[in-house]
Amino acid sequence: MKHHALAIDGPAGAGKSTVAKLVAKKLNYTYIDTGAMYRATTLKALRSGIDIEDPEAFGFLDSTKMEFKKGILFLDGEDITMPIRSNEVSNNVSVVASHIPVRNKLVALQQQIAESSNVVMDGRDIGTVVLPDADLKIFMTASVEERARRRHEENLSLGIPSSYDKLKSEIERRDKIDSSRSYNPLRQAEDAIYLDTSDHDINAVADMIYNMFTVVTTKRSKDNGKQNGQ
Ligand code: DC
Fold it and tell me: Whole-prediction pTM value?
């Protein structure tokens, strides 16, 4: 791997994206929200009216452009930050993300991005499938109640109508689909560090991960230098 990578995996609402954004900023790395890519695929599928249950109906991905600019995902040139957070997309994304052709396509794209830049990538299968050689892997989680509370606040701050109880049951439903799908399910990589963020301030968690990452990458650079006789 020519570039450095930090992989952050975990269930919805564990604080991954907030932490990933903070750490990416501190490291001056590119932040890649892979969940946004599955959401963008779902949005395009819903807009075009294809049968989202059909794994073979996603051929449109071959001619779809997904690009991150300053952490914002553009779908065929459109900033889709708001529409990918709609309830319609949230309620259909797990099905779309369970399709093998969709996963293969998006994983390849994610690997390509990591080949060309230093990244902080968050998702469900980054440490296990997308970037098995990442410098550091974190598996972040929090209680269902805390995760629903965080998503609720996030929605409100974005001006999206939100109900805590509904979010909680949706999160439980999505956790179940994401962890029980047969292909690339949500699971902790053997060499990932497990972090329960329920009782921790997100800024403190970000600082801790940043420090760990710096230690690991500095050590790796030194080891590589020794191997090369430097
Ligand atoms: O993190 P999020 O809620 O935006 O993710 C949206 C959906 O995409 C979620 O149901 C899990 C799925 N996903 C996935 O299967 N693999 C990833 N690497 C990222 C997200």
Answer: 0.91
